[in-house]
Amino acid sequence: MVCSEKSFHLEAVIRGSIMSFVSTLRQWDEAVACVEQRDTDSALRIFLNIEEKTSKINYNIGCLYLNNDELDEAEKAFDRSIGKDGHLAVAFFQRGVTFYKKEKFEESLLDFQQAFKQLRGNQLIDYKPLGLTYKLYACEVLYNMGLIHAQTGKWEKAQENLLTALTLRAEAKFNHIDNALEAILKQKIYPLVEIRAGLLFKPNKHYVAELEKKDYLGKAKVVSSVVPADQFSGFAPLQPQVDDVPSTPKVPEVLRALEGEPHTVLYEFVPATKEELAVLPGNIVFVLQKGADNWASVVFNEKRGLVPYNFLEPLDITMTSKPMQIEQINENDDIPAPPRRAPPSRPVGKEGVKAVKAETKNSEELKACIVKVHFQFTIAISIAHGQPYGFILQKISSKLQLPPSALTLQYAEEDSKEKTIIEDSVMGAVWDSVKDGNLTLWCSVTEGKSVSHEKVVALYSYKTSTPEDLDFKAGNVITVLSKVNDEWLEGQCSGKIGIFPASFVKSLNG
């Protein structure tokens, strides 16, 4: 009798859970259709009537409120979305936009910073595999961060964000970043970047269609026992609704979506064979199987193919918020993960042919050049070939944390030891002197200007984990050359230059 009651309750719970999932999908699809027909009021009403609201559905509700300028309700909806998925960068971005419109600039900046952090060093996140036709770019998050600094009168901070955005922009179409930089130099406010109205997370149409035409549970039958002494009454075991059912039932397509481990693509991969799959940095793929040869079978945009596993990084996509796991050096000191390393070499494919990355048509014009700058110490920065003198000067001055007016740049012509002062008129010759993708410049401080950098002392020893890191021991004095972000600094110690966690040091004056 007890077992029968447990079976009854278990089946009821399973049936209720699946029917709730089916209902949610149908309502979600209906609401999105209303938005496409520009009936946003009906869409909002349907979304609000969904009982089990996921992070994506709460995000959609927030977007509809935001587009209606109902900012308080939008904020609450994005709060719920982030509460269910603390890694949804686009939700932090939209809440940052909401706070900006409410003129809560401090809260807005924190959300944009959190969105940038969730990008985890990638240039973009493509949300299309998750149902949202939108790419969140790191450069546009930094663009909005710069705008907030400008709104609060921190013009240098704004300029720093925009210069970093220029180095991270993935496509040439982001000319609004250049326009924003010009506005900042004139201490003028520029427009906010927003997600276009009507862009929402959508359910997979195929899954909705499958649910409409199939009954995976079958019809439950209420029966009573034929044994007089048995008081059992409940649901009969679930039965298939078709004849000649195979011994291993086919898994419904709606459940196949849960297969595979989500991974973020770190580096661009261009296929060399038909078995391989093209992916770009920021794409989210689902790894079905990892082979011993370091190739992974993945699904992306409903296509299946092979991608080198070391081009991928596991991504935590959950329906509930999970705390980020951060390595700890000390019991009370959380150390952030280091910035991205250089792309690994490509593995050899199954046919024994090493894949070769295809170059773009205009690669010579778009190719980045490594510029080595000799100063009191040597720095190296990446600049797109053909950039004007003013842009190069701004990049170097930002790196050295010195005003552009205090710096003089020189270069040496090929096969010549004499150095020539750089100005706009000689930029053609400067770029002609590039050899093997490298350009060497010399930088000096204009007479009458002095150079000073902050000094910090190491609280703990730090050992390098990547070639760009700076190692040091507790008690070492480090010269801070620049600020990478809120968690990392670039500095010089014992003749070496690299980046290190800001939490490992303190100011000598502090």
Structure description:
By secondary structure, the protein is α+β, with helices and mostly antiparallel strands. Among the domains are: 2-134, Tetratricopeptide repeat domain (Serine Threonine Protein Phosphatase 5, Tetratricopeptide repeat, Alpha Horseshoe); 258-314, SH3 type barrels, CATH 2.30.30.40; 363-445, Ubiquitin-like (UB roll) (Roll), CATH 3.10.20; 455-507, SH3 Domains (SH3 type barrels). The chain is 34% helix and 20% strand. The chain is built from 14 helices and 21 strands. Helix 1 packs across helix 10 (205-213) and helix 3 runs antiparallel to helix 4 (71-84).
Brief synopsis:
This protein is of the alpha+beta class. Helices cover 34% and strands 20% of the residues. The longest helix is centred in the first third of the chain and has 35 residues, at 2-36.
Topology readout:
Blueprint: H1 2-36, H2 40-49, H3 55-67, H4 71-84, H5 89-101, H6 105-118, E1 124-126, E2 135-137, H7 138-151, H8 155-168, H9 175-185, H10 205-213, E3 222-224, E4 233-235, H11 253-256, E5 261-265, E6 284-290, E7 295-300, E8 303-308, E9 312-314, E10 328-330, E11 333-334, H12 363-366, E12 368-374, E13 378-384, H13 389-400, E14 407-412, E15 419-421, H14 427-432, E16 438-445, E17 455-458, E18 477-483, E19 488-493, E20 496-501, E21 505-507
Keywords:
alpha+beta; SH3 type barrels; 20% strand; Ubiquitin-like (UB roll); Serine Threonine Protein Phosphatase 5, Tetratricopeptide repeat; 14 helices; 510 residues
